[in-house]
Design a protein that fits this description.
InterPro entries: GAG-pre-integrase_dom, Integrase_cat-core, PolX-like_BBD, RNaseH-like_sf, RNaseH_sf, Znf_CCHC, Znf_CCHC_sf. This is Retrovirus-related Pol polyprotein from transposon TNT 1-94. It comes from Cajanus cajan (Pigeon pea). GO terms for molecular function: nucleic acid binding; zinc ion binding. By secondary structure, the protein is of the alpha+beta class. It folds into five domains: 121 residues, no CATH class; 85 residues, no CATH class; 123 residues, Beta Barrel (Cathepsin D, subunit A, domain 1), CATH 2.40.70; 39 residues, no CATH class; 228 residues, Nucleotidyltransferase, domain 5, CATH 3.30.420. Helices cover 32% and strands 18% of the residues. It is built from 21 helices and 28 strands. Strands 7, 8, 11, 12 and 18 form a five-stranded mixed beta sheet that branches. It has a five-stranded mixed beta sheet with strand order 21-20-19-22-23, with helices on both faces. α7 runs antiparallel to α8 and α19 crosses α20. The longest helix is centred in the first third of the chain and has 29 residues. It is extended and about 125 Å long. The chain starts with a helix and ends with a strand.
């Protein structure tokens, strides 16, 4: 009785801040466990050390239904009392949907075990769903809302026990940005490669994204088409020699009233209205000097007159007609009048800025100064430059520009430079300049730097002007080039027929004219048509490379294939390939994700250099962001990193053909073995081994293996992919009476210089093991079908 008087159960009256539901188990668990551990009640949720119910065995086996007649163990009674208080406290902290899952459970440890089983399965599904959301999220709102949405997903992953690293967090932010941020993403990626991702980098990235978004918004709000009207004072009388009846007037809104002019003189009143006499009819003139009845009529692009289009123009086929362009903002001045009061328009030409402004939202370089174009041609298309206020600005010329900067001895190019006379500032497209010159931009609070991607040398430095980044005026490089002068009448006539017939080839033009009995023998056999260049441009064939490589590892090509729609048996969806330019020998490594590419490269470099006794000199890849991480490592080891031109897969033609060879042969092996795509990775590994052992005409009928190791390959060890075999399994048996072998399938042959191994698939146990080929008995004529 003394022990009973000393036992005081804990009532657990501490409230839980939140009730348990389907989404907050980890937070709820942290609060509950803190209380349980504080009261030293862990044994109740673990379910260990439960005392026996009855004090003696006689009481437990007594044949009576009256439980009170049996003597219960006092420790058990105290245990149950405390356990039920804990059960009541746990159930009180759960929501109704969770309570329904606890029906039929008596003790606390039973409740706790069911919660762990339920939320373990649910947590895996939630983690998979959240990671998919993190990969698929795209910026369709403001930067703050976009980053907050990513932060919510990251926090949710932390809650379910799968925290996201700073590197993956930053990658998710950059991957979801739209195309207009491409230049910004390239600069940030290089910066992060040097600095390393961590919390402070993410905070700096947040501020830089806000600044970049503000620049985009400012570009949309700014009105680059500035027109200011300035009144020039002068004499206030003008004469009209015409006679007639009517009335006309100029007011401050530039309205003109009058039809047939009959004026004896007039003057301006104090409200800016000019009374010019009387006349029949009335017409209102707007700011451009056009009357309202002509406002919606088209303007001819050939003669400049109103009322018809170029297709119906009388001067369309007149080769000698020269149009005199008229300004868009033309003052109305009737013939014979001496205008004493004029309005001067301050067009963008009066406020143009010679400096260059980097713009990440511009898709082309734009200039207002025609002299900035080193090579140019007149633009005859109908496109215009759209600015923030939806105004379309006329494009006068298109060309290229080369410039030199004192900070660098290299010349830089601005392709597709548009000459827009009405623009007020020279705009430098960040994305095009970075892509064309292989540079990246760094935007700091007080300056803007441009550096090369290879050596990170600074080539340009800008400063802030009116809260905008600006570069000084560039020193243009004069390019001397031949410009054909086409004045021959035969050439002009041929060009006319070439245009009429829809721009066919010169041979077709001559055939068509021959059928119409039009002399065409004096026409040229070839000529350059600007319209054909613009509309029929296609990729020119590449010249076959004549470079010869004298030793292995002098140049290695690399590329990543994937993702495969079906994962392999090990979960791999990608593979990275390394192709030696000298021997055409291939190495492939299976990858679960592209982020493993760098580790695979380090493994390849270490193995290849050690086995071949030579150093890797150069690596060629495309511009994928996975290879940007290689730059620092390659620079430290003195390895040259060569990049193929953007969108030019032909420069990696060897790898493209190798990918096709591996994939097609791998699918053929699977089809022959009647195996599903689940074993595609094993087929790729076997295919690569076989390709290295096969002779090729490009190596004078030697195999890549023989070229690299100077020894002919041994084909005696090769077996059919997917054939039946019986391996010696005695070392893997559990007892002496187990069978010493089972029927298996040969899946992968990995052949090195001396060691030959194979992956085997047990037909019955479906177990993937790696065994030595010397312990195998093959049934090469037997192909098994598992599925």
């Amino acid at each position: 009785m003394t022990s009973a008087s000393q036992f005081v159960p804990h009532t657990l009256n501490m409230p839980i801040a939140i009730k348990l539901d389907d989404d907050n188990f980890l937070i709820w668990e942290k609060q509950v466990l803190a209380t349980i551990r504080g009261l030293k009640l862990e044994k109740f949720v673990r379910g260990d050390a439960i005392p026996p119910r009855f004090a003696t065995k006689e009481n437990e086996t007594a044949k009576t239904e009256n439980l009170e007649a049996k003597t219960e163990n006092l420790e058990y009674t105290n245990y149950v009392q405390q356990d039920q208080l804990l059960v009541a406290w746990l159930l009180a902290s759960m929501s109704s949907p969770i309570l329904t899952k606890m029906v039929g459970l008596k003790f606390a440890y039973q409740i706790w075990k069911r919660l762990e089983i339920y939320y373990a399965a649910r947590t895996r599904a939630v983690i998979k769903k959240l990671k998919l959301q993190l990969r698929m999220i795209k910026k369709d709102k403001g930067i703050n809302e976009y980053l907050l949405e990513i932060k919510k997903i990251v926090d949710s992953l932390v809650v379910v026990g799968s925290p996201v690293s700073d590197e993956d967090h930053i990658d998710a932010i950059l991957d979801g940005l739209p195309d207009e941020f491409d230049g910004f993403v390239t600069s940030i990626t290089i910066w992060l490669t040097e600095r390393g991702p961590h919390v402070s980098s993410r905070m700096v990235l947040h501020q830089l994204l806000l600044a970049q978004e503000e620049r985009f918004e400012k570009g949309k709000r700014s009105d680059t088409h500035l027109i200011n009207a300035n009144i020039v004072s002068g004499p206030n009388q003008w004469q009209n020699p015409n006679q007639g009846r009517g009335r006309s007037a100029f007011n401050t809104r530039a309205e003109f009233r009058g039809g047939r002019f009959h004026n004896r003189g007039g003057n301006w009143n104090n409200r800016g209205r000019f009374n010019a006499g009387r006349g029949n009819g009335r017409s209102n003139w707007n700011q451009t000097g056009q009357n309202n009845w002509n406002q919606n009529k088209p303007t001819c692009q050939i003669c400049g007159k109103i009322g018809h289009i170029a297709l119906n123009c009388y001067y369309r086929y007149n080769q000698e007609y020269q149009n005199h362009p008229q300004a868009n903002n033309t003052q109305f001045q009737p013939s014979g009048y001496d205008i004493s009061e004029t309005t001067t328009l301050a067009t963008p030409s009066t406020v143009q800025d010679p400096l260059w402004y980097p713009d990440s939202g511009a898709s082309y370089h734009i200039t207002h100064d025609e002299s900035n174009l080193s090579m140019k041609s007149a633009y005859t298309g109908t496109d215009s430059v759209n600015i923030g206020n939806s105004t379309g600005l006329h494009i006068s010329h298109v060309g290229h520009s080369y410039f030199h900067n004192p900070m660098s001895s290299k010349h830089f190019v601005r392709h597709n430079l548009l000459h827009v006379p009405s623009i007020t500032k020279n705009l430098l497209s960040v994305s095009k300049f970075a892509r064309d010159n292989r540079v990246f931009f760094e935007f700091w609070p007080d300056c803007c730097n441009v550096k090369t991607q290879d050596t990170k040398d600074m080539i340009l430095q800008g400063h802030l002007k009116d809260d905008l980044y600006v570069f000084p005026q560039f020193q243009k490089v004069q390019i001397v080039y031949a410009h054909p002068v086409q004045k021959d009448s035969n050439h002009s006539l041929f060009q006319l027929w070439h245009s009429r017939l829809g721009h066919p080839s010169p041979r077709i033009v001559k055939l068509a004219l021959k059928h119409c009995n039009i002399p065409s023998s004096h026409f040229p056999d070839s000529f350059l048509c600007d319209s054909c260049c613009m509309g029929k441009a296609h990729q020119l064939p590449f010249v076959q490379s004549t470079t010869e490589y004298k030793s292995p590892l002098e140049l290695v090509f690399t590329d990543i294939w994937g993702p495969s729609p079906v994962p392999s048996s090990t979960g791999a969806r990608y593979y990275i390939i390394f192709l030696d330019a000298y021997s055409r020998y291939s190495w492939i490594y299976l990858l679960n994700s592209k982020s493993q590419a760098f580790d695979a490269f380090v493994q390849f470099k270490t193995s290849a250099e050690l086995q071949l006794g030579m150093k890797l000199k150069a690596l060629q890849s495309d511009n994928a962001k996975e290879y940007i991480k290689f730059t620092k490592y390659l620079t430290e080891h003195g390895i040259k990193h060569r990049f193929s031109c953007p969108d030019t897969h032909e420069q990696n033609g060897s790898l493209e053909r190798k990918h096709r060879h591996i994939v097609e042969t791998g699918l053929t092996l699977l089809a022959n073995a009647s195996l599903p795509l689940h074993f595609l990775a094993e087929a790729f590994l076997t295919t690569t081994t076989l390709i290295n052992y096969l002779p090729t005409p490009s190596l004078n009928n030697w195999s890549p293996h023989q070229t690299l190791f100077q020894t002919p390959p041994d084909y005696h060890f090769l077996k059919t992919f997917g054939c039946a075999c019986y391996p010696l399994l005695r070392p893997y048996n559990n007892h002496k009476l187990e069978y010493k072998s089972h029927l298996c399938l040969l899946l992968v042959i990995v052949i090195n210089i001396k060691v030959i191994n194979a992956y085997l698939l047990l037909v019955n146990a479906m177990c993937l093991e790696m065994l030595n080929l010397t312990s195998l008995v093959f049934h090469t004529k037997k192909i098994l079908t598992l599925f």
